[in-house]
Amino acid sequence: MYTCIYDDDLADIVKSRAQQENRSTRKQFIHYLKLALESERLLEENQDNKKADITRQDELSANLLIKGN
Fold it and tell me: Which domain holds residue 36?
């Protein structure tokens, strides 16, 4: 586990947003860190989640085709 110190202004922004989204400050920091890493393409999307999304999309497409006929 890593520990780091944040700038007070950044911490205030994250704390405020955490309250709005009913998250702990720690979870909010992790959320924003993951978003930043993803936007810099340093964190890849979890392949299991990607497969589940594709499966749901395929099932939805199949249901729409069946209902359309």
Answer: 1-44
